[in-house]
Each structure stands twice: as structure tokens, then as C-alpha cells.
Amino acid sequence: MGIYEELGVRRLINANATLTRLGGSLLAPGVAAAMEEAGASFVELESLQRAVGAEIARLTHNEACYVSSGAAAALTLATAAALTGTDPALRARLPFTDGMRNEVIVHRHTRVGYDFAVRMVGVRLVEIGEPGRETTAAELEAAITPRTAGFFLFPRCLEERGELSIETAAEICRPRGIRVVVDAAAQLPPRSNLWDFTRRGADAALFSGGKGLRGPQSSGLILGRRDFVEACAFHGPPSAYIGRGMKVGKEELCGILAALRWYLNHDEETELAFWETIVERVIAEVGSLPGVTARRIWPSEAGQPVPRAELTLDEAALGRTRDAVHAALLQGDPMVDLAAGPGTTLIVNPQTLYPEEIDPLITRLRAVLT
Ligand SMILES: *Cc1c(COP(=O)(O)O)cnc(C)c1O
Question: Ligand 1 centroid vs 62 CA: distance in angstroms?
Fold first, then answer.
């Protein structure tokens, strides 16, 4: 009996996205072995953290890297670093920030659900911009006060255009000592994002290790400028300050390095071609059912270059609502989760599907929809 069966927890076919609540992603080949090896010896954790960081920085063409316990932890550490740099007295005062730089500027319309990871450091968010038009440099300049510590960008959906470019943000912020941070947690693929955001001027780009990278679910990367990454490490575990609860173990450190090596070596084109075949099969075999129409949509909800199959349900013809179909898919064993899209749509995302899951997924979709 497997561990999930023993615990009475159903397995899940994830055709939704690299969602943390569904387990993020599956470990890439070689990651579990690296974690097991790491778990078999004591090691001085800070030396390991530094060595892994240096190797990941080299592989991703960044000055420096700090491994965090996830992208949300990376947001907290980056915020703390933007506020205090490496000043020990200021670090010890967090999350009380009276008299410090304690404002972070964000775009109003691209805020995601991770604000708390920034605000918990004692920060006030200052909003600029609105949907449907370009944010101007003048707006950013007008929002800057003597208390501004950072400008955080959450590049997500292509329809959320209008964000100030990283280049312009860096031009305005750098001379004022304001840190530009890109939350790129789910922005893989393309792998070039591992270096593009920082090449374009961001002090750091933050990635989830448990999403596209297929590393340990509780890992993340802070990639960027040496002085800023060092300030993040200054707040991070194992030092006993604001990041102490965001521990990264030797197993995660070696695991995320193995995942990153796998990620940089695997063939992005082959993977994309595989995803296209899944989308085609779903459209042909599920979209042909009465009461269902299907089409390929692109890019994914996080703006990634990943195709998806969008199923539009004719609720009257099917005699059940989209939500009832969605719920029925979650009833089985294994559970099947798709994304609920606009209107009466359900969306199949191939990014988190594995070859042996395709037949069971299609069989289950056809069964629930007929
Ligand atoms: C998933 C996500 C996070 C959180 O990442 P974790 O690695 O789960 O901590 C933060 N920001 C965005 C935009 C995300 O998609």
C-alpha cells in the first residue's frame, strides 16, 4: 500500500496549474535522490546555503542567489532586505518600522493574493496605475516618498498590460536606493525568465521552487544583485530574525539545485510539443461530445507560453451546471481537478500532466460529460 492510500488521502490528477494547494508540481528526476543523500549527513547549513546559492547563481547568469522556503518567503525576505539592508539594529526591530523606510509601491491592478507576505514586515503598500492604460514614469515618481523602500512587480497575465517596464522602474528607483523586485513565482517556462528580469534591471526576481522548476515544494529562489541577495540572506534562516520560521533544510537546498540542473538541461521544445498533443487530444476526444465545445487557448493564466484546452459547456444540453461537472470530477479516486474559467468553461492545463495520466483523464472527462 502506498503512503497516500495508507493515510486515506486520495491521489489527484492535476490538470489545473502548479497550485500550491494541489501539491505544486512533481519532483523532477534526480531531486528525490539528491534530497536523500543530503539527509544522510550533517553539514554546516550556512556553508551549504552559500555553496548552493553560488552554483545556482552561476547556472542562471545572476550575481547571487539565496534559496528560500518558497516564493512567499522570498517576498518577505526581499521586503525586509529592502527596508533595512544589512543593518543589525534595524533588523532586530522588525516588524516595527517607525522611522524606517517602510513603504512599498505596487500596481493596483496586478496585486495577487500574496500581499501579506510583504505587509507582515510592517510595510504599507502604495498603489499606482489602473487597468486599461499604461502606467507612466511620472506616476511612479509621484508615489515615491522619503519612506519608499521598494517597487514590487507581479507580472502575471498578458491582459494586465500597462505595468511600468522593469527598465523604467530601475532607472527611477536605483539612484534613490529603492529596490525593484519581481515576483516571478509561476513565471516558468520560459527558462530565460531566470535571467531576463534581473538583466532588465530588477534587483531580484523571486521564483517558486515547487512550481515550474519541479523542485521540493517548500523551496524558492531569490536571484539577483549580490548586495541585495546578501541582505535577504541576512534576514533569512538560520539567523533568528523575521525569516527564522521560513527554514530551508539541507534536503531542500540540495533538492532545488538538482531540480534547477534538470530544468536547465531538459528540452523546452519537446515539453511544449508534448503539451500541444495533450491539448489536441482533449479537443478531439472531449470537445466532440454533445453539449461541449473546445478550443485551444494561449497563454496560460500566469501569462506563460503554455497552451491549454478550454471546454465550454452547454449547461442546458448537458442538464448540469459547470460547477456540478467540476465537483463531480473531484469526487472520483483519483480526483481530477481542472481550472474553472470564465462563464461555463473548464480549462485543461497540460503543464502538470504526466504521460500515464492522459488516458485516465480523458476517460474520466468523457464519463462525467455524457
Ligand atoms: C505561487 C505564488 C507565490 C507563492 O509561492 P510559494 O512558493 O508557494 O511560496 C507567490 N507569488 C505568486 C505570483 C505565485 O504564483
Answer: 21
